[in-house]
Amino acid sequence: MTSENKLDLVLVNPGNRAKIYQSLSSTLAAVEPPVWAGLMATFVRNHGFSVNIIDATAEELSPAETAEKIAELNPVLTAVVVYGQQPSASTQVMPGASAVCTAIKHISPDLKVLLVGGHVAALPERSLREEEADFVAAGEGLYTMLELLAALKSDAPDYSKVRGLLYWESKEVKANPPAPLLMDVEEKMPGIAWDLLPMEKYRAHNWHCFDGLVREPYAAIYTTLGCPFHCSFCCIQAPFKTGEKELGYRDITNSYRFWSPEHVISQIDILVNKYGVRNIKFADEMFVLNPKHVLGICDLIIERGYDLNIWAYARVDTVRDEMLDKLKRAGFNWLAFGIEAASDRVRDDVQKGVGQEDIYKTIKKVREAGINVIGNYIFGLPEDDLETMQETLDLALDLNCEFANFYSTMAYPGSQLYNMALKEGWQLPESWSGYSQHSVDTLPLPTKYLPASEVLRFRDNAFQIYFSSPKYLEMITQKFGPETAAHIREMASHKLERKHSVAV
Fold first, then answer.
1. pTM of the prediction?
2. 306 vs 279, 303, 309, 435, 494, CA distance in Å?
3. Nearest alpha carbon to residue 495 among 445, 440, 453
């Protein structure tokens, strides 16, 4: 391949599923398309550069195999994209990202490597110092990647002009002024580069398909970027903060960008008509928020007559009565709610001020509309003790949602809790894999009253109690059939190995 037609960019979704999910990785965990890598590919291609994507997770490639594929392609730049299956999960991707960077430099030391994504945007200098990468993007990385490619392809690369870039110069870390956010997402980044992804490899969450457990094909899309809320345990805005500041946003204001309903339906058209996708995740941190946006998308899906099985995130205080009928008719069969905790004291402390009465009322009306509910609960928030955690489990058992996720509180880099943990000297995981909820070495935060080990033990017991509850299994059997109930029993039989099973 001559320099004139040399591939410009390879985007890598690093593989690490077995370490993140243990025995759940083989059949139970979802295999999601790398949405950010797909969006980045579109953005870069629209500026005239050639792009490829290696999804090491979907292809089940080892770091060495990934590096060998990159070496064969010999791109101008390799960007390792550090984003997880949900917005707060990018840190757990770091072990895989780190291993890929090391493998690339071992096989092809002259290849240029950029780290980009939520975790590295939260800790850009640390990422550059600790990892075998030439560059780190301090923000969301779009303009940084574009300008870095242009610099690398020039006769005399000048990295100092690349906005949002961290790099080494004379054994010193150089940090350039930030790049702004990409605001015209609809024109510059209108969709995901589906043609660069192994679409046949993606698999929906098991609960997403309780109606028949046919989990493939599957896809995920964004209709918005960012979240206007300020929950202290969330790091969703980490890659956007420097770009927001560059555009003049106040520190207390979060950006929230939209693709129009017309652009969203054009993506769904491709997924349905070209790839035969029925199962879709709307990956927005908060999809059910703006009525005009939500109802506009629903109307276009209903007009098409598509038979879709969609899930999306919502908040107890954002679901309006007039949305529910159209959401259901459009194929939104699941809504995920961050209920978090039962205690008002615990919720208020993390800026999640929703009352118990509102939780029951909203969950009831959503289910009455024929939409299944995923209740997300967090054990070990700063004000939690054994009594309040038991109250949260009791709430979960009483609500008896069609599915539940039980999390331990993690101080994800980029969140307010992470900054608080550093300030207070709370023990954090020794490795990035310890930020995965399902890993062997996972280490949640202690609370003001409990050690981390007790939080983790409670969380794992709560999982078993919920999914073996006769009330829950009876509801699942009546709603989805005995095969789904048997599947849940099999799921609950997977006991996670934990390193921190004694007091920490």
1. 0.93
2. 11, 8, 10, 38, 36
3. 440
